[in-house]
Amino acid sequence: MTSMNSLTFDELGSAAQRDRRKRILDATIALASKGGFDAVQMRAVAERADVALGTLYRYFPSKIHLLVSALAREFEQANSNMDRKPVPGDTSADRVIYVLNRNTRALQRDPNLTEALTRAFMFADASVANEIHAVGMHVTRMLMRAMHDPGTPASEIEPTEQDIAVAKVIGDVWLASLVQWVTGRASAADVSKSIDVAVHLLLRD
Amino acid sequence: MTSMNSLTFDELGSAAQRDRRKRILDATIALASKGGFDAVQMRAVAERADVALGTLYRYFPSKIHLLVSALAREFEQANSNMDRKPVPGDTSADRVIYVLNRNTRALQRDPNLTEALTRAFMFADASVANEIHAVGMHVTRMLMRAMHDPGTPASEIEPTEQDIAVAKVIGDVWLASLVQWVTGRASAADVSKSIDVAVHLLLRD
DNA sequence: TCTGCGACTGGAACGTGTTTCGATTGTCCA
DNA sequence: TGGACAATCGAAACACGTTCCAGTCGCAGA
After folding, report:
1. pTM of the model
2. At residue B69, does pLDDT exceed 50?
3. Any CB–CB contact under 8 A between B4 and chain A?
4. Nearest-by-Cβ selection for B123 from A123, A126, A184
5. Alpha-carbon gap, residue B96 to B79, rounded angstroms
6. CB contact (8 A) between residue A197 and residue B168
7. What is the mean pLDDT of residues B166-191?
8. Does residue A37 register a pLDDT over 90?
């Protein structure tokens, strides 16, 4: 049933297993941060996490699953950090731009890590649907919170069709820009500009 | 100098070489069409194109270069097909939607091929910049022609900053939608809807 | 026609993602 | 405590992208 999915935190029975999972993701992030996608070698991850190669594959059925799961964990952390304060800005557009730029800068601070995670995300195929979906939810949630009044608890927002459509387009543009930045086809300024343009075109209020 | 780029059609001296290049790209398309990204195996391409493995690598320095070059050739052909007739539709938005839907349907008719080409495009790194750029130009050109009056020769259009920004966003959304379709995260209808939404939000005239 | 040189061939070899499997360890139930 | 069963380990093996090399071919210039 779950044979082709990564083992999630909650599915893991024992503390030792949750710890193994954490060690694996930590090792993944560390290696990615040091040398990007290519440096995340399965043997290296296993060794650094102090786990056998076969075990690594039991927890994450492929390198892509592993990296996308790491991305999901990063987004989750970022989201819960942001939940602590209301988003500054007077308009939807301002707040969305603020949030995206803030996250973009955070990503750009660790280019190797971002390259690794982004490339994995883009290369993922249908078998990674669950992990990808988790990432998508985090992004949508972040944008929804920014689009609505500051201080609104995320759980109480009920987005309109239009909201969702707009968030989807903005998310797409953000991701496409990041991909271009990661692959050296766009500068950091270009990414910022793209977001600005897209948000202002989409959220003229 | 050109050591890390694919050999382009014009760079090739002899007819035999141009023919080799064509055979390689044909073999690539055929294999991709049959089994997608994974089926495009370098040994298989070489064998089918009746070329030694080393020669294949002399023409295209990696599998990604190969597939992105194939994508560029496909777009080039599609573009020159479309140049034969004016784009139907009364408004920019209508014409852009028409063109994108037409191309989307064409891509969806061969899901394996589309999967192979899209994934390669998304996975490409900085070393594939030239090939990627070629693809980008074809897409931009296609959108520019659709945004302006039907019948205008592509060479005579002088796009404004705004035009370019809008085309960029639309291109990003189109690509992101295709990626989602390829990976089973969006249906054909979803792709169509995304394009509709993005174009109507961006080209309200 | 002969010569030299770059292109091409066939095939071996290497690296890394992935699979497999027998031996060992940990855990939980009787 | 003892035993069963799953999880983990250690290590070999496989697949495919990529590199390398020695030999052959084709062709332009002498």
Report:
1. 0.90
2. yes
3. no
4. A123
5. 14
6. yes
7. 89
8. yes
How does DSSP assign chain B, residue by residue?
--TTSPPPGGG--SHHHHHHHHHHHHHHHHHHHHHHHHH--HHHHHHHHT--HHHHHHH-SSHHHHHHHHHHHHHHHHHHHHTTSPPP-SSHHHHHHHHHHHHHHHHHTSHHHHHHHHHHHHH--GGGHHHHHHHHHHHHHHHHHHHS-TT--GGG----HHHHHHHHHHHHHHHHHHHHHHTTSS-HHHHHHHHHHHHHHH---
Sequence letter at residue A42: M
Mean pLDDT across chain A, nearest whole number? 90
A-B CB pairs within 8 A amount to 79
On average, the pLDDT of chain B sits at 90
**Whole-angstrom distance, CA of residue A167 vs CA of residue A117:** 21
Judge whether A200 is closer than 8 Å to chain B, CB to CB.
Answer: no
Chain A closest CA to B24's CA: distance in Å? 24
Q: A185: pLDDT confidence band, cut at 50, 70 and 90?
A: confident
Inspect the interface and report whether the beta carbons of B125 and A119 lie closer than 8 Å.
yes
